[in-house]
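ARCHIVE CARD
Drawer: 12
Card no.: 0347
Subject: one protein chain, sequence and derived structure
Cross-reference: see card 0346
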Amino acid sequence: MAPLKGKSYQRLLLFAIFLPISGVLSFSELFFVKEPHNVTAMRKEAVILDCQARGEAPIDVRWLRNGVRLVENERVYLLSNSSLFISEVESRRGDKSDEGCYQCLAQNKYGTILSQKAHLTIASMSSFALQPTSVVVTEGSVARFSCKISAHPPPIIIWEFNRVTLPLSTDRITVLPSGVLQIQGVQQTDAGHYRCVATNIASRRRSIEATLTVTPAPGPMLPQRPRIIAGPQNISVSLHQSAILECLATGNPRPLISWSRADSKSIDVYNTKVLGNGNLIITDIKPQHGGVYMCRATTPGTRNYTVASANITVLAPPSFVEWPESLTRPRAGTARFVCQAEGAPAPQITWFKNGEKVHSNGRIKMYHSKLVINQIILEDDAIYQCQAENGLGSVLSMARLIVVMSEDRPSAPRNIQADTVSSSAILLAWERPQYNSDKVIAYSVHYMKAEGLNNEEYQVVIGNDTTRYIIDDLEPARNYTFYVVAYMPMGASRMSDHVFQHTLEDVPLQAPEISLTSRSPTDIQVSWQPLPLKLSRGRVSNYRLSYRTSSESAVSQIELPGEKTHHLLENLQPDTIYLLRLVAATSVGWGEQSAWTSHRTPKASSAQVPLAPELYLEPLNCTTISARWHLTPRNSASVRGYKLFYHEESQPESAPLQLQASAHKHTIGGLEPQRGFISQYLKEMHPLANGVDAQTMGRSDDSLLLLRAATLRLEVSIQEGLCKI
């Protein structure tokens, strides 16, 4: 029988194994017909959280609050239909409060399932986070007031003028749901006191009053270019909610407001409308509404305009794109459940077995969206649930694993041996089981990397006509662990003994990227980072650095030990373009050479150019790098400051940070985890002895090269493991 790999093969094998007993094993599903949902309640109000399960009786239902089993009392108890009843919601601090996350568990003879999460929130309203402030405006211009308050559920905000409620919209007045009041073409009659009023089911709060003072317009109004005084702000909006983008502009004549998308896509006219004189509101937000929107204020009849932009990020709760399927597996077999979900932000996947969280161990592993159970035992027979969760909610999907028992299963394959064939192949050999070997219909070969955590296990199934197999898709210079399982129609053997073997080294896939700087007109500092194992394909034993001038064909070469990460080329020619490249070698041989990289040495000059500092980079956590530096003893130039350059690999360089001459360290935060960053420091000097100021030098081509020569580039990777979550 020819060996097969992957899911299609596994399905074929399992069909062959379990065909004789298909239709014999079945189970009554256990499922919810009603699950609890989020609810907001007033204090002392009664609340019912629904939960009804169906399946083979008897079914036992319990409730959890914040992951802990809920104890019933005279105020909180289960109804006859298993729903949870809270007669008077409490909002006291700590454990006395009923606020929290609720789930019900339903259990019958086949296992236990968890319901979706439901959050009970007590209606509330905080103090105003932003109060309206008094303003003085000229007659005919625009006025704007705003207020902000946190409340649950979100409040309805209205505005009062001299304690009389203003209409939500007129030809001059616009009230935005976000708490903004806009007044166009201000008149003397608009002068007075304004305040906002926030209302929800819990409370009503009034802000302090702000005064609008209107001054007369000074004679004929002169033309004014358009100016946006309140532009749109970046916002994140949940799916099916509304997004409000404010755009308030002033000018004479009054500017016209128009909207467009930065990606040139058309704006959805069915879900979008304009509030007031130019504010944009998008209702029933969908993923396609995400993007950058630009507000443009234009003077009528002219090309005078100004633009403001903001990004809409559409948030979406999790939804499944692939569900786990119920499986029937023999004892000592392997079960794989797959679960994939989408959402924004990306949901986190958690697995549950009979309502309890699954943890990785020697037999049970989780790889991204997969749950893999090896060497199945009877206790693995259970209901498994995949939970996808992000900040907007969670969803659950379930599947059952049925474990088939067989008393006459074969013994484990014996005397397993592994021999290295090449850098990517290992030959595995074994002997047939001692008992019931005549009933074996197939073997499965299991292998995974021996080093590291949560390595994915791979499986190859082959026929019963051989006891040898070459695994030929391995990585060079890696240690692997192997075992073999024998299958019969009614079950599988225990796993064989594990055996460890390593692949041979290979030549490196590529050379390190090099960074080039000059400390003086006659040298070049060459720096590089060690290759990751996946690219080095073994231990790097040597580097070969080749260099030549751009005008000559003769190449000079230097061989360096494999532990080196930098080298200083000296006694070079000033003001000369050099071409350099690097190649790495393992014990097998030399890999691919890098492309030629050019660098011009600085011109020789009597000016005192500062030498580059010694630079040290250290990742502090998953988003932060600490940079430290000190001057070399050879430095004699006077330093008046530093410029710090850094950028993500393969991205353009951003504007430098200006640092004082007294600074010797700096922390760079807000970086992306697991990215490579290149940091570069550039020194600036006091005016030089020959009367030429360093800043002036920096603007001339020759002196700019001299300044750029006084730089040092190093590279550091922020490791994900430094981030403690």
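Annotation on reverse: The helical segments are 6-18, 533-536, 694-699, 701-709. Confidence is low (pLDDT under 50) at residues 1-27, 675-725.
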